[in-house]
Amino acid sequence: MWRVASTTPVEPTIHAIFETNTGTWQYLVSDPATSSAVIIDPVLDFDRTTQTVSTRSAESLLKTVAECGLKIEMILETHVHADHLTAATYLQRHLAQSQGLNPPIGIGKRITQVQNLFGQRYGVPLAEYMTVFDKLFDDDETFKIGNLTATAVHLPGHTPDHLGYRIGENIFCGDSIFHADIGTARCDFPGGSARDLFRSGKKLLSLPGHFKVWTGHDYPPQERETPRPWMSVQEHREQNKHLKDGTTEEQYIALREARDAQMQAPKLLHQSLQINIRAGQLPKPTEAGHRMLHLPMKFQGGEW
């Protein structure tokens, strides 16, 4: 876990918790003056071998919340993730029990496009995803975390609904910019766009150079080994392998699209999308008591 303490009344204290199986950074962002806090992009654990959902990562977050005496005001998603399951609903229910509150789950207003697309693709009943998010943010909408002011920033490219959250001199950018030695996220999901992601990246790198960019994932190469949750805007301008100063839009698009063409689908793609359009709610059980997900099949050889 990383911890960056508040240095002024307008800056948050940040706990960054790394989930190693999916390389995901989860965040607790709090106002030290009031102990109000938000959770960003929490993980629900899933074992592909046994098809078992567990709450180890979520319980770790809850433990930190309790130890720090934080009051969770909202659970924030940057987008519908395709590589891990969200623990948003699980945390919402357990925080309601422990704190007597029901922290809303927030996401960008374009989420309905993504929900409808994947709801139809996987045969998810409309009633299981249409009202699961409590707060749909407008672009550049501001909101409060205790005495702190936060802003929802539209950062399309990886997905069309993607948001970042600017809190003080920090921006939590989700799956847009990664560590400088990785560059940026893929853009080959439905609704993704390398052109949009280039422009979102440049929006991020137009912030003051000392601002911290907190990423959604890290996959450290062998020469680095240790995951790192943030780099400064200036570090990205100088070092980001995809977006450093001098990179043109057309250069970026050619590089990103060539890279995406070689990438395999995320290991938890189908499980993640079906759970995450539901904000982390599990499918309703069948009469036999099973909670079912749909997995598409591919055929080789003759026609069926």
From TrEMBL:
Q: Which UniProt keywords apply?
A: Metal-binding
SMART domains named among the record's database cross-references: Lactamase_B
Record InterPro entries: Metallo-B-lactamas, Mito_Persulfide_Diox, POD-like_MBL-fold, RibonucZ/Hydroxyglut_hydro
Metal-binding listed as a keyword = yes
Provide the Metallo-beta-lactamase domain boundaries. 23-217
Tell me, what is an example of a GO biological process annotation in this record? glutathione metabolic process
Q: Name one Pfam family in it.
A: Lactamase_B
Report the GO molecular function annotations. Answer: metal ion binding; sulfur dioxygenase activity
Organism of origin is: Aspergillus ibericus CBS 121593
- This protein is called Putative metallo-beta-lactamase domain protein
